[in-house]
Amino acid sequence: MRKKLKEKINEALSSVLPITIIVLILSFTTAPMPIGTLMLFLFGAVMLIVGMGFFSLGVDMSMMPMGDGIGAEMAKNKKMPPILLLSFLIGVIVTVAEPDLQVLARQVPAVPDMVIILTVAVGVGLFLAVSMLRTRFGWPLSRMLVLFYLLVFVLALFVPKEFLAVAFDSGGVTTGPITVPFIMALGIGIASMARDKDAEDSSFGTVALCSVGPILAVLLLGMCFQSTEVNYTPFAVPRVFTSKDVGEQFAAGFPAYMREVLFGLTPVVLFFLAFHLLRLRLRRYPLIKIMVGIVYTFIGLVLFLTGANVGFMPAGNYIGEQMADYKWAIVPLGMLIGYFLVAAEPAVHVLNKQVEELTSGAVPQKAMQLSLSIGVAVSVGLSMVRVVTGISILWFLVPGYAIALVLTFFVPKVFTAIAFDSGGVASGPMTATFLLPFAMGACESLGGDILTDAFGIVAMVAMTPLIAIQLLGLISGHKNRHVADLTPEEQGDLYDEIIDYTDESDQGEEEPYASHAQ
After folding, report:
1. What backbone phi and psi angles, to 5 degrees, belong to 160?
2. How far apart are CA 16 and CA 21, in angstroms?
């Protein structure tokens, strides 16, 4: 156990270290920050590293087996009404508990928090049920996505403009560190019971559909909710100057995020225990392992969210304010930060690992991470262009989603599902706690409108991976097309040649091709 935890922490260190170095370089050069703010950031970085290590190990031990077991058990039931009802309840339970959604709800004062939360939760629940129907009947994901996103942009024409940013951001914040591992494992568990050639494709796409539901739900709320005061309430970024201030910030943050994570995990755990008693009836050792994993997940999330919110948020806002003096320099700087920051999203590691395992290595983690990093870098760069120029977000979202939907007809189906899953996963807590304050600080210093120019970055970060991952699929499909045309004997010969080559060169670059050929 200690060995695995050490491996997870080392993996987290390699993910968080680049963004830490970038911030340190900026703090000693173009964006000098108060020593208290720098101390907050450094302590926050340590918490992120340790928290991601515990979280990753906890997810492997608990959240993934829980979701996979429930999904596989649900798949044994041939009657759809109970499956749909159970899927809806699961979607509502895990979404209401998502910490990122609580933050979003507090930023819309004209609408009661619980109205926003329940609206988004119902949207996720309904579309989780739709995802179950898709898996059972083999409905093509690409056509479903085209239909639903066309509906999204049609509805966008009839709602107050203030609801647009809320709606698109809600699609990103609902797929956070609690929701993603459980829902992804649930989809994989149900798809694993399929015996047809589309089983692998059906393993992905659940998160993608669950990201559309909140957007449609909030847009419909915007059409029904009569108010002229729908806007964001910018959160207050604390200013700290002494080591005592640093201690006070973390002392206040720990209990708050412990309550949030406890509130988030408890419904999921209670649901699993009830399902275990009624249907699963696991043996003692697997059940104890899952319970220990839940404790690790709790510890990891508390450390991660405290480090991100208390440590990273003030640093991001302060750097944005200082870099506004170099106006157009914030565009490449934002791209550089986005490129490395997405690696610090805890749910990204869960997705990358599942993609590599379920595609038998044909889509390696490194390729996924590189594509996501490029996609997020582009999205943050475009967001900084919005901050500098004030261009409406629709000028980016409409053509971006149009390109992503067109690509669905030209790439392998599994890549479409992975791409739309990755869009929701990439826009996690690091986007809300570092990139958004960064954009707000720059926007405020430039004299822009924070509500229209800075917000919406979550939606941008959720969009570009859809294109980047599908382009990866297009390139990968082109390279490997000749393998699919070979006879089984020729594929076996190719596999032997690749194994011989990798043994001689002692490198692993060709392993995905070997897996594919086999």
Report:
1. -60, 140
2. 9
Mean pLDDT of 12-39: 91
The token pair at 229 is: 């005061």
Supply angle C-alpha 156, 161, 166, rounded to 5. 80
* This prediction's pTM: 0.79
Alpha helices in 225-310 (DSSP H): 243-275, 284-306
160-164 own/partner pairs: CB under 8 Å, 24+ apart: 160/222, 160/230, 162/222, 162/230, 162/231, 162/451, 163/218, 163/219, 163/221, 163/222, 163/225, 163/230, 164/393, 164/394
The end-to-end CA distance of the chain, in Å, is 33
Phi, psi of 77 (to 5 degrees): -80, 120
In angstroms, the CA 99 to CA 255 distance is 14
Scan for tokens 């698109």, then name that residue: 168
Neighbours of 392 (CB within 10 A): 14
What angle, rounded to 10 degrees, do the helices at 206-224 and 161-173 form?
150
**Backbone torsions φ then ψ of 2, nearest 5 degrees:** -65, -40
Which tens digit of pLDDT belongs to each residue from 117-152?
889 899 999 999 998 888 888 888 888 999 999 999
The whole-number pLDDT of residue 381 equals 94
Structure tokens at 156: 């966008």
User: Over the stretch 26-38, which tens digit does the pLDDT of each residue have?
Assistant: 999 988 988 889 9
What share of the chain has pLDDT > 90, as a percent?
26
CA distance 143 to 308: 37
